[in-house]
Amino acid sequence: MTTQIINVDAFDYGAGTFAVRLRDPDDLSVTVATAATVVASANVAARYIATFSTLVAGGVYYLEFVVNGAIYPQWVTLAGVDLEEAESRNERAAILLTATQASIATIETSTTTTIPALINSLTSQSSWGPVERSPHDTNPITFSWPVSGATITSYASIDNAAYGATTGAVSFLWTEGSLHYYSLSFNAADRPTAEGTARYKLADGTYTQYVTLRVEGASTDAAGIRSAVGLASANLDSQLGTIQADTDDLQTSIGVAGAGLTDLGGMSTGMKAEVNTEVLDVISVDTFAELASPPAATSSLKDKITWLFQWMRNKSTETATERKLYADDTTTVISTSTVGDDGTTFTKDEEA
Fold first, then answer.
1. Fold of the domain spanning 4-87
2. At what angle do helices 222-229 and 236-254 cross, to 10 degrees?
3. How does pLDDT run along the chain (352 residues), one tens digit per residue?
4. Class for the domain spanning 124-215
5. Distance CA 116, CA 113 (A)
6. Smallest Cα–Cα separation from 45: which of 7, 75, 100, 91?
7. Sequence ranges of the chain with CATH classification 2.60.40
């Protein structure tokens, strides 16, 4: 039994009477075939399955989906084989008229040679850039070329001047896939010395390419530095030399670790008064805690004076063999020393 199925996607019309007819796409009055059955799909919503029991030849057909007498037009393409399952669509595939096809053939014939020539013309001349560099950047300019082993001649136009041969040379670098990389070496004569633009023309007799270099930023030569720091237009070395000489004189006057600062007689009256105030403040205002043990032989003058004051003020006791000094609380012993007398010499040991 022959079976061809067309799946029709539409709307969920619910219960109704459905039919599918195939018509000639160029003469819609001719009915080619009518589906034996049309039922709603049990698996996909709003899909209807039209089954043809007689084999329909392959081709594009105008499909009439009829719902309760109303026609919803669609299109379908069939292969014309048994057990085929096709999908309907809303638009007919574009088909060129015979006259249009003939015109296209004429164009193809007339441009068989001109189109390749045009492509070669377009690919043989191309432009790269812009490449941006600072005035002091001496790196070469790298570019790709359609072929390897080319002898490339380079020309430069600086700030829209006439092209002239570059001093820098072009050399081959490496090949990566279908791209062949070359470099144009740096030469100051081939670039603007300050902000500006250089355009390079690169040619090997078959291909021509252009590279644009844009130089941006302040120059780091003597004039550029003077302008940046606001110095005069005199020789930069002389100005820096003067600054260094003044610095050397200042170092000599101060000396190592301030050894040259020996004469403070030039202090103003106000400065002297401030020094006097600070010294007087230390003597008459600042306070210091008493010592909790005897100071070392190399202790500060403050501690030594404090130790004498504690002996004059604080409680102390002495026996025939020992002397003690107490803290301000009169109970804490902060120093003990041994004493003795052999009838001729009285001896007192160090405080401990």
1. Immunoglobulin-like (2.60.40)
2. 60
3. 678 999 999 887 877 889 999 999 888 888 999 999 999 998 888 899 999 999 999 999 999 999 888 899 999 999 999 999 999 998 877 555 566 666 666 766 665 555 555 555 555 555 565 788 888 888 898 888 888 889 999 999 998 889 999 999 999 999 988 889 999 999 989 988 888 889 999 999 889 888 888 888 755 556 666 666 666 655 666 766 777 788 877 777 766 665 665 555 556 677 778 888 988 888 888 898 999 999 999 999 999 999 999 999 999 999 989 999 999 999 999 999 999 998 899 999 999 8
4. mainly beta
5. 6
6. 7
7. 4-87, 124-215
